[in-house]
Amino acid sequence: MNMSSAAQEEKGGDRAAIRLQILRLSLPIAITLLAQNIYSLIDSFFLSGLGEEALSALALATILQTILNTLFVGIATGMNVQIAKAMGAQSLPSARKNVSNGLLLQLALAVLIAICGALLVRSYFSGSSNDLIVIAYGTSYLTPLLILCVLTALQITIERILQAIQLPKLSMISQIVGLCVNLALDPLLIFGIGHFSGFGMRGAAIATLTGQLVAATVALLFLFRFKGELIKDLLKTKLPDWETIRGIVSIGIPASAVSILTALGNYCINRLLISYQSTSNAVFSVYNRIESFLMLPRQAISIGTMTLFSYYVGKKEVPKIRAIFFQAELISAVWSLSCALFCMLLSGSLMRLFHLSGETLRMGFACFSIISFTYLPSGIMAVMNSFCQSTGKSRYTLAFILIRQMVRIPAAILLFQTGVIDHIWWSWPISEVASDLMLLLLFIRHFRRVEKTIQGQNDID
Known about the structure:
Elements lengths: L2 H46 L3 H37 L3 H37 L3 H16 L2 H15 L3 H24 L9 H27 L14 H35 L4 H35 L2 H35 L5 H14 L3 H16 L3 H23 L10 H34 L1
Helix pairs in contact: 1-6, 1-9, 1-10, 2-3, 2-4, 2-5, 2-8, 2-9, 3-4, 3-5, 3-8, 4-7, 5-6, 5-7, 6-7, 8-13, 9-10, 9-11, 9-12, 10-11, 10-12, 12-13, 12-14, 13-14
């Protein structure tokens, strides 16, 4: 074997090792997200037995719940990045400070959301729908979830800490345990059994909260067992440490805003659909559930690569960062293309599982067929967004989503005016082109700047 062949073989082996590292970290995260989305799909399936009004209420509840819960996810994302970077730099005190101050932020946020949930939920549904059944269903479902949102915060935070320290398998196990509890309780608490009549929509909320409590408890026990030094003597750390909080929030707020803008965009689409027919947004609800299920491996790759980017930025290893980026792009693109083909071929069969038929089934088929064109480019952009978030440029991701929604919503409104409801879905490809071009330009400049900064630091060291 000549030297050129040996070098190529070594380079190919490095690429394979990087792919394996990405998959090793991302696969448990994917299974964790799969558990969450299986619950969402099955929850939708059970609640569809109460009628299309229940699905319509669930769609509206999911939007507000997503907006509020994404604040927890944003803080947890900031913690993830900072903890992973501290572990890469082998700074346990810094990692511990991020844990304690992150938990303090989550607790304060949970109290605020609980107060808003107790006072404003019914007003939200009354302002979103004129259907009294939808309003009653939505209020019954969402109120307990927001009042006890501290369970959501704890589950999200501990699982993200486990992912940050590259123990995603433990996060996966805790999530699956919580899912099993949730699914066991769902049909019982929604429909009842024997002389027990069940609680309907509120029963689904109770099942969700119980599952979250169990999952959070299991994850916390794992953290104590396998990385106890990270949470040892947390109360003895400086609280609040404003510098640490600024570091978490600088990443967390833009990350939260990204999801909030997406949810607000979905809310606008829901309102347009409701104005066409009172329950036609059930189509969009089903689409979002199925799309979330299909895209979760891509989301897992984004979370996994964000952790790896942060870790190797802490270690100041530019070749690793570059290799992780290109291999993650390859994996994400292949999966996204596979999902697009799947949606084009099998979306009708999937929608029938949710009791959609006639006009709503036809609308759903058009929805899947058109939006699936965007899966491949959005998959490529997802890895770029992960890099930006892991290197302190979450505002680039925020700008990306802002441009997407600023184009999508006006485009959807204009297309809705044509009188053909199916045209509304073309707002997705239109907004994808605009936002992708903007992010690509920002990313290229930022990636080069990060490389130069790390290389300069290495030269000084």
